[in-house]
Fold these 2 entries.
Entry 1:
Amino acid sequence: MAAGTGSGRTVSATFSPVRGWLLLPSWLVIGIFLLVPVLLMLVYSFLTKEFRGGVIWEFSLAAYDQFVFDRGLFGDDPPKIEWAYITIFVRSILQALGATVLCLLIGFPTAYFIATRPANTRAIWLFLVTIPYWVNLLIRTVSMKFLIRDNGPLNEALLAIGVIDAPLQLINTNFAVQLGLFYSYLPFMVLPIYASVERYNFALSEAASDLYAPKWTILRSILLPVVKPGIIAGCILVFVPSLGAFLAPDLLGGAKTFMIGSLIEEQFKGNAGNWPFGAAASMILLSMVLVVLLFYARAQSREQT
Amino acid sequence: MNRRFDIKHYQGFLAITCLCLFILYAPLIIVMIYSFNDSASITNWGGFSLRWYADVFTGPESEKFKLAAWNSLSIAVMAATVATTVATAAAIGMIRGGQFRGKSASFALISLPIMVPEIVTAVATLIFFSTIGFKLGTLSILVAHIVFCIPFAYLPISARLQGIEASYEEAAQDLYADRWRTFRYVLMPIMWPGILSGFLLAFIISLDDFIITNFIKGAGIETLPTAIFGSVKQGIKPNIMALSTLLLLFSIALVTLSYFIGKRGQEPYPTD
């Protein structure tokens, strides 16, 4: 997010006497309808569940306790460690990391290639990469489901050319979810890396080349450190939405590929839900995301000083 | 200068770029192709036909789709309009308001909807509306959409404003224009491409949203994504592929429009 601090050349205070009024609507709208709700959600995660969905206003740590301990149906058995929810969180982190690595492997060369095109074709390449991002995520995920389903076009094509003998079971696997996440957020990886490679001064590479550095050494030791902020930004832009993704695990996965997003959604659908538990799961997800973002902000400010 | 090799070129990067584009486009193109399939089965190819497009507009589910499309479009237009207005004011306050205490806090607040995971926003909004007893429906969807559209509108608007030199407004002020006239007749015409692409971005983001809408829509109201999701849960049907193709082409048309507006915006300010 590059905006916000002003670039020096255009620092102007023409509107400073009224800036409070100009900013007020955004403070109010986001403050009342997002910040207050998030704080309320924090409160809810410490309340007692009501069985038909909703809460009883009574302080309780049950929602967080339920994550780690199984105390039986009536809550008075000796506590055992409950692995189900921990597994879901670990799986979500692994899936998000896997999607990030896949996106980086494909995204970095793509971003580099586009950034080194002549100026007149660069915009077209970049536009081609961005278009899918603007297509409805639901439609993209459904398309992926259509493509990789048991008797879908991918399996038919593989059967026809004789690579496989029986259709691959892709849908409902962790791999399908991984593929869905990768596909959903790939453009997020390409754009920030593109932006930093485009600003990279290739005279540095030329200097290294004149000093007889091998080509891949130039990439690794000269280019990579310079474009690192772009790579980190790309990784965060992929990792964060993957962690809380709902559509890819829901449509491409099954019960064995449950992720945080599906767990949260389940608590608020129908009558079986547990609102405090869903609020607690959301709080844990939000905290994880905020830790990643704070880590990023610190790394970035260190980079600048 | 004679080099041992072209230092910009790496073997295989072109192939990976093509693979990247292939992965991005293959599923969409295949769904587009199958939307023209004459067969009612989604597996076998029965020849070219437009019957599923006719089905979207006149078939048994057409009333549902039309209503959902109307809901989606009207919410997107209203949410994007309000969000763009709020974001334009905020951008001027942030970038033309000088240095002030709480500037980075304001920026954090404006970016909050992007930073909070969508599913968390959905849960928080549902809890909020249910606590204050706000009836779930079109209005609750609209309010939620305005919130998450603001940062998407803000980014291109503020980027455009940052690129505009202060001398234009200062000249207007020297000529005794008040702040409103400075904005209306000097700043706004120069900011216009930014405002327009902010609006289009917010519009697409609103049209695209599934997760938040699904949580807070209440019973009986559908937008296009929630209607499609409900249908797909029972299996992918050919009419859904036709509907998806239409929506997909609509989004691409809007993005292309926004791209060309943005491109015009990069040109020097009009001098005539």
Note: The mean pLDDT of chain B is 89.
Entry 2:
Amino acid sequence: MNKKFRTPIYASVDITNKCNLNCIHCRNDKSKFIDVEYNKLDGILTELEEMEVFFLSIVGGEPFLYKDIDRLLIKLNNLNIPKITIVTNGTMINIKQIIKLNPHKIKFIISLDGPESIHNFIRGKNIYTDVLKSIKLLIDNHFSVAINYTIMKPNFKHIREIIEVAKKLKINKINFLKLFPVHSEIYSLMLSKEETEELYRTYDQYKNDNKIKLSFEKDYLDYPEYIDDDVCFSVGCRAGISQINILSNGDVVGCKLLPQIISGNIYKDRLIDIWNNDSAWELYRKIDENIKDDICKDCKYFSACRGGCRALSFYVNNDLYGKDPNCTIR
Amino acid sequence: MDKIIIGKNIFWYRFEYQNKYLLYSTKGYFYIINDIILDSLILLSKNVNNIIIKDTINQKYNLNLSQSQLEDRLKTICGVFNK
């Protein structure tokens, strides 16, 4: 089987790196604020549509601070891409913009990292009430809303509370996200292995709750890896295999957590040419061959997870091909 | 990109390589399937009877698939997608 897909399944575009919050786990480069030029963005979105990408995610910074957000929303409404999401902190959502959007077309993902005091602490501002109002506004206007909940020490004991809040608000889904130690200040927020296992136990009590859908990176272990030669899943590290990310400066990267590994730039090359340039993606497309952890290769999940998260290994072990420190199998 | 609707599920698909297709559900699951399974799913989406699906596929691809072989494959895809 080919190592990469013909074109990406998933594409994310950081349309701006501007943000109105100051989160404790932020990995945004705040030294220079850049928006993707609208004309370039319009062309890239059309190219992604032509490449038959399944899933487009509009991300920031805070996307609603993008200078041409109104033009962009109209463009998104008319794109023939099956699943389009806007990932936002939920503080800037405007009813005038929302009512122009097609709720069957565009979905929202809003960051909510715990009950009120915890969320406000993590996000650096008293915004919890505003976020809940935005969620209600979207749901009242028939949009599908999911929550992104980044797991870290201040909030890992509060997932029960947030599940209950989400159910009351009629939110469809909560995505529990890993925290990535992209700089040293974040290390102290990361869970220990024991805390991670405690979190998994709590999560397992809820994962079959039929009132809300929960997703967690751990979920992939419940999937069949290969059903037979024709049918397969693609999980594990997807960078450069099925996933592409465009940063606000135009850099094209496989993994947003490893923005230093650049495979091209939209201001220089066409996206399809960047994707087809195997040498530009070699670090990701040869993961299976380069993984150093022999225990990993013997693991029954290896064909599916391909060694887990390479970014975590890079930041914790200083080795792109080392052990995923979050793995609880080994 | 084309889509197939089976019950409440919407599946999108695109040609991938070597008679393989990438099938995506808006529930977030992916499969790589061959043209035989794609044709079967398209027939299933039109509420064609399973026996007729089997006969049509066997005739078109000159195969001798049993009813249960084909049903198991389709159930696997739709079942997992229904999770």
Note: Residues 193-206 of chain A form the longest helix (14 residues).
